[in-house]
Design brief:
single chain; about 270 residues
Amino acid sequence: MRTPLTLNALALLGGLLVFHSCAQWPSDGWLLGLVPATWLLLRGGYWQPAGWFMLGLLWPLLWINPIQLQLPADWETEDVSAQGWIASLPEPVGQRDVRFEFGSVELSRNGRTVPLTGRLQLTWYDAPPAPLQVGKPWRFTVRLRRPRGFSNPGAMDYERWLFSHQIAARGYIRAQPEPQQLATATRYPITRLRQYIAAQFQRLLSGHPLQGVLAALAIGDRQGITQDQWALFNATGTTHLMAISGLHIGLVAGLMYLLAYAVWTRSNRLL
C-alpha cells in the first residue's frame, strides 16, 4: 500500500520539529538503534510515515556534526598549532593584513590533537607580500576563540552566520614560531580555479574601472569593487546582484545552453 506523499511530508516535518524541541540529544546507543529501524520502516507499508518521522529526527544530526569537534574551551586565547589548507580567497584587510578560511584542520597543543570538521577564520597580520595560494597546506601557530554573537534585538546574528559558513573558530596567526608551508598535495580545486580567474582579471584589466565588478559577477570575488561603486549599487537597488551574481550567470548560461542545444539538434541545416 502506498502512503500519500502529504502524510510522509508531515511526518518528516514532525520529526524535525520534535528534534529541535529536545533539550538534549539522544545517546549514541539510541542513534545506533534508530538508523536500521528507520531504514526498515522507509521500505514501505503502513508504518512508512513512522520511518519518515524518525528520518526527521536523524536528519539534523548531519548538519550538527560539523560543530561536534569544537575548539576546547581551555585552548581559547592560548598558542595552538594548526595544520590545514587555505580554503577561501584571501581577503586583504588594511595595508598588509589578510583574512582567509583555513580548512581540514588539525589542532595540537601539549601533545593532544583535535581534528576540526569545520573551518577556521584566520587573520594574518603583516602577511608576506607574495599572494597566498588557495589549496596550499600550511602549519601555523594561532590563537583562537569559538564563535560568539550579540543578542541585541534586530541585530545580525553573527554566530549563526559563522555556523552557516561552517566556521568552528576565529583567530589570528602568531609571528613566532614562523609559519611553515608544507609539501603535501593541494586541495579545493574549484576555489583554486576561482583564484586563477581573479588573477587573470587583474592582469588583463588592470586599471580598468569595471575590473572589480566583472570579477564579482564572474566568480563572486567582490574585493575589487570600490566604495563609490558600492554607493551606486545601494542607490540603484542593485547590490543583491553582486551578492548572488554567480547564480544569475549560471542560470542565464544554462538557459542559453539549452536554447542553443534545442535549436542545433532540430535544425537540418545546422546538422
